[in-house]
Amino acid sequence: MNKFKITNHINLASPILGSKIYKFSDQFFGKASRLIKDENPIFKEGVYDSNGKWMDGWETRRKRDKGNDYVIIKLGIPGTISEVDIDTAFFNGNQPEFASIDICFSTNSKFKWQNLLNKKKLKPNSSHNFKVRNNKIVNFVRLNIFPDGGVARLKLLGDLEVHHKISAKKIDLASVLNGAKIVACSDEHFGVAQNIISPGKSINMGNGWETKRRRGKGFDWVIIKLANIGIVNDIVIQTHHFKGNYPATFSLQGSFVSKNSDVKKLINNSAKWNTLISNTKLKPHDNLKISELNLNSEKINYVKLNIFPDGGISRLRIFGKIT
Q1: I need a labelling partner for 12 at 20 to 30 A (CA). Which of 143, 160, 192, 204 fits?
Q2: Is the model's pLDDT at 307 over the cut of 90?
Q3: How many domains, the chain?
């Protein structure tokens, strides 16, 4: 079997969803807002600001009293969390010794915290991934660090709690804001697949999905679970900023999957899904619209975007009606 990457989650802490820093104990060396940036952390050699070494993350001063530091994040869209990623990239000797996470749902800024992740030992310059068992809908998350230090990124992976009504109005069934998510992809070497279902127009190549150059047979692909079961009417596929590295052609498949399926099985079965759009030529830095698709009112909740042979896509919009 070919290698592929399973994602099957949404980062609930992403500013794309409207998530923001609500409160923090301290941010002397590094702003708390850097903690939830979507971009991977970077290191700037020899760069200092007025307080010390510039670091791409949230970093507190050294504690000289009792207690511990914390930051509270208000989620842009409530959801359930199934995985946590605490990244201490480039914090080597100044990372916290331990971290824990608490959650709650609040509409009046009164917090009744419940523990999501017990105290965990943190390593320097490392990504720490923890699976958690919790089905509570939350909109506030508190990261506690013990006693102080720096964390580059925090990702809260799970599913959004979005309610849809059956309507004659078209919505973007592939929008992350509506609850769509990436399930798996063949490769995301230069740009993550979730970018193609993000809102707004891409700002640069790094803000899209881009695969490495293929040196053999095959093609690249991404599978998206739509926001809801729907009938697709129109699609928009954009290659903005991809001028010498856009795919030559693309195709789109779709299917209705009645129950949660093992991802590997889903990927294998996707080769047999119905073709919504057959092989179609793409252009560089372009906005291609295909309207009034004749799909015989086929209801689907998954789509597979195939690109030939490789390259970059900035955005994919799939407009349809919820059934």
Answers
A1: 204
A2: yes
A3: 2
